[in-house]
Write a structure and sequence with these properties.
By secondary structure, this protein is mostly helical. It has 11 helices and 3 strands, in the order αβααβαααβααααα. Strands 2-1-3 form a 3-stranded mixed β-sheet. α4 runs parallel beside α8, α4 packs antiparallel against α9 and α9 runs antiparallel to α10. The chain is globular.
Length: 312
Amino acid sequence: MDRVNHTAVSEFVFLGLTNSWNIQLLIFVFSSVFYLASLLGNSLIMFTVTSDPHLHSPMYFLLANLSFIDLGISSVTSPKMICDLFRKHKVISFSGCLTQIFFIHFIGGVEMVLLIAMAFDRYVAICKPLHYLIIMCPRVCTLLLAAAWTIGFIHSVVQVAFIVNLPFCGPNELDSFYCDLPRFIKLACTDTYKLELVVTANSGFMSIGVFLILIISYICILVTVQNNSSSGSSKALSTLSAHIIVVILFFVPCLSFYTWPFHPIHVDKYLAIFDVVLTPFLNPVIYTLRNKDMKMAMRRVYGQLVSFSNIS
């Protein structure tokens, strides 16, 4: 009987974002345009960093990896959401739902640690410029990247381990457009109050902890520069502004989902769209428009591609 309860629900039904045809059409256009733009933008950053020798430095190594992570964030939920917008019956299999939850937390965990690595890179570059290449050597960059993937994997495995054996015997409707972990747990045919606290605390404490580490690190950088040079703080602020904007864009939805459960459900839905569609697009825009080296490198790569096509 216990086995039956575990397998009674073979699929989940998404209630989606809205029943309004006009709003669905608007969301479809918005999501499709920004999803494709994020794919192109992040792919362009990865290709440019890989192709241009001038960008073979620790900062751009980490930036290319952030772009790779952003490709994953946008691709875990966006394609299905876009395809489901005009479907009357929006479903996902039980295993598909667990897979989606796993990769959401896996990739999200990797990005959190990667943002810490990028903040550390900026700290060394601004506060210890003479030792930058010694401290941020290829071995250290590789270790930072390996740590990001390892921590993200462990975080996600722990989350899924809490829920994989929960009994689901109905209902099977999720008031969302993707497998949202807090709402997924509420559908289990058992008392999940303590489990909800544990799972929420896992993601909530991780989000708050990483966010505080990043904010404190940026404050320390600015204070250090201000004490050493009265004219250097504006340059440091200009360098850090892109990182700070990216951190805010990434963490505001995360903190909202896991640390502030009192707002209406529809707010969560639209914050989720912002998180999975708009943020991965804004990251490459922020880093390219505010970075002269990146813009120059893109021009060089474009020129080389044009020259190659003319020769061919």
